[in-house]
Amino acid sequence: MAGISVWSLLLIFVIVLLLFGTKKLRNIGGDLGSAIKNFKKSVNDDKPDKD
Q: Each residue of 1-30: b (16+ CB within 10 Å) or e?
């Protein structure tokens, strides 16, 4: 099989966790979530009304 196994993904997650730490990953996740939220809001605001 050429796919990525669950164990490989788990190992990658552990390595990333050790490199960046939980606090930095939490901050990155929060920043990414707010960026996506603001992007969706701006896309919806730019659509013309269908009245």
A: eeeeeeeeeeeeeeeeeeeeeeeeeeeeee
